[in-house]
Amino acid sequence: MIKQGLFICACAAILTSCGTDSPLTPPPLPDPTCEGLYGAPNMNTGLSTEVCFARIEGVELWTPRVWDAAAVADLRSWTLENPPTVPTEDPYLTTPDLQPDQDATCAVMVTGEQTYRLETFESATAAEIAGGIVTHGGACALCSSLGDLAAYAETPDQAGPVRQCAVDNLGGTVEELDACIQDAVGFTPPCSRIWAYNALNDRRECYSVCIANLGSPYNEEDGSLNPCLQCDEDNSGPVFKASAGRTRRNSGLAAAICRPCDSVWRVDHTYE
User: What does DSSP assign to residue 23?
Assistant: First the structure.
């Protein structure tokens, strides 16, 4: 449930933590003043690090956290006390008009030694006032766990293995596709299932254009997406964002697919 109320609004208005005189830290929202593309280009990207880079240059310079093996392992050591269940119905068929809540924020609420809950708040400021640690923009959903953050951080180029699973499982069941994605990337079961449903929807909506662009770079020279990825963005993006919750962009993670820097949340991912 999104946290609301006059108490939170009053605290936000004066920009102080409830019960203390400490000012709130700036929310990790996207920076509309930045320029350039954000990402971590590799041989599949089609762009160089001169035009796409893992930093955001706006009014202030922001660089993402560096994810080494120890940092990823630490994320996986946390226990989520309110995990989502694995969906059993394809949301692209049952709720095709589903849209993400762009104003909401998903926060980690630390409950003990390496234990936490996830809660959705109406804003990053409201999350901080309540003692939460912002983990991504948008409402909490199937991929919001720290375990899934670990999978995102560990594999900057997820398009490759997910695409290969889709190719290897043409005509297969969602369970078979799900198992392949889970094994290839390391998502939790709820998260791997929405990725599988996303791949199935791309098969329905984007099959011909994706087959034609199977070996194409992720980004065109002007920074736009290749036709297959753009088809996914247009036809599968809204339902995926609403159902998954966490994406690379709203988590501040640099990916092999480069994106406009002003679409990226500047999340530091320090959980204490």
Answer: B
Sign of the alpha-carbon dihedral angle for 193, 105, 98, 260: negative
Contact predicate 159/229, CB 8 Å: yes
pLDDT tens-place string over residues 211-235 = 999 889 999 999 999 999 999 999 9
DSSP 65: P
The domain segmentation of the chain, as residue ranges, is 6-263
CA 158/CA 135 separation, integer angstroms: 19
- The total number of residues shown for the chain amounts to 272
Cα separation, 121 vs 136, whole angstroms: 11
Q: What is the pTM of this model?
A: 0.89
Question: Please, which residues have CB within 8 angstroms of residue 224's CB and are 6 or more apart in sequence?
Answer: 230
Amino acid letter for position 111: T
- Give the residue from 239, 272, 237 showing the smallest Cα distance to 257: 237
Neighbours of 102 (CB within 10 A): 10
Q: How buried is 38 (Cβ within 10 angstroms: 0-12 exposed, 13-18 middle, 19+ buried)? A: buried
Report strand pairing: 37-38 vs 61-62. unpaired
